[in-house]
Write the structure tokens for this entry.
Amino acid sequence: RQRPSKSFNMGGAGSLASLNVSKYSKRGRSNRLLISIQCIMTVLGVLSLFIIYIQIKTVHSTSNYGAELPDIVLSEEVKSKSDGVGTDKESTEKVVVDEREATDPNCTFREYVDRRYYGHRNNFKAEPEPDFLKNGLYIRGKDPIILDAGSNNFAKKACLDHSAWDPGIAKGKRPFVDSQNPSAMSLRLTKGPTEQQPRLNKENVQVLVDTYGEERLEEMFIMSATVGNGQCQWGETAAEMERLRISDVDKARTVHGELLILDKHLDRLSQTSIKLLSNADWGKKKKDGQMHLVELDDTRLFFSNGYIWLYYRNGGNLGYTVQAHNPLYIEKNSNGELIAFLKASEMVKLCCGRNMSIIPLNDSSKQMEALTWVDPVTVTTFGPRGTNHRRLAEIGETIDVHRRLGRKGGGNKHKSDIHGTNGFMVHLPSTNEYLGVAHFHRPEGRGKNDYARHGHHYTHAYFTISDSTPYRLKRISNEFLFRSMSQTAGLKEDGDLIQFAGSIDLLGGEADGRLLISYGINDCEGAILPVDMTIVQTMLIDVDEGSEVVDLMKKRIN
């Protein structure tokens, strides 16, 4: 016998009514529940489709570079972060690990302790801004931004094989130093859109042509890097060193230059140490006719008259104010392995300073030119005329003494403290300019401090100078930081404490190509970043004729 419902009982005729109301009430609740479930399933389905769409767009945006440019696929690490420039949007990370990382975990970017980051305002973990940043002078009084690179906003790790000289690798540690200040350049044999002549003569890189073929070489890259006494370890505790796999080697076993041949994805194909053929006296080192592994610091690549050149420093042997330059030779030894070397007899020195940028030479009958100072713009000629390398040893060092540091009209009330950085300027023929990247570090001094061995809190700025005399500053951007590629969990938009852009190269056109920037991180590792030229051009701002960087330095308006 069916029991009457207790939900709505009024007795008599009301009992029938109560049964009917109860029956329809239950049916209504079931229908509403079914409709709710259907709505939830629909929303979940749409959300799943949206997530798949975003993933497809992300993969597409990080691999589509345009048919006319080298196919650089940054497969090593992709981090999906905010699309704003210097914004404080939350960042999310997605790491894509390629086959190389599975076999060599040292090809990933490092994680650092919190104090090894710049402390940009967008980083919610940053400490209060120190006085030397708060009270410093900045270009146009503007806050440094986090650089937006454009179509691909993620750098590639410059990955070296350290097994030949680093004993810490066998213990499962990271290298004592991954690399310092890499310099990656295109190996193209044909003229680029902005070049008046090919940068390389085929016969000067014949061994690479024979090994890889002309067509493949057109899309490949060459990279120099220094390994030595870096700052991968800087005040970390024993627990931090263990967690971050920091090497327990007490000091660098060697300070020298490495040369790498990279494929179109910027992955390593071949690597060799750069040696010196002692066929003449080389500073304090006497000629002995042998091949030696020597100290080569701050190495950068550039091109002149169809040859690959390397510039470098060796303070103890050549003097700490001298920048030295040599043609670079690449051959194969008896085992069929690539070797790279310089000839002592072909060294040419440039004094006095560091990070002096070589200007592309379009006339083989002229001497080389270098931008020795950004502020004021100072260009110096040096070296031999043409390709007569036998005369290089006869060329003395060029000494430059006419740099203005203080305010116009005399005095030294303030100075810009801007430094040149990149090894090879890029020509922009449509605007009759040379493009470079310069840097600041704050405070200006390089003395003992709690942050780093020398300079720290680096920022960079793009700049251009006229491509003919009288050379002058034409455009300069406001300051920026490279977005940190660290794997630190929760790291919001920030840069690294030390960033040093040592090399730039133009891939494609000056309006729609990409600027390939090689830079060092924390004096420990290196990265290669393609930046859309549309962004570079937008960031560059005209400078009044006759003005220098020092005239643009102002305190920030907070």
In short: The longest strand covers residues 268-277. The CA atoms of residues 92 and 126 lie 18 Å apart. The two ends are 82 Å apart (CA to CA). Helices lie at 13-61, 99-103, 131-134, 206-212, 214-217, 238-243, 315-318, 533-539.
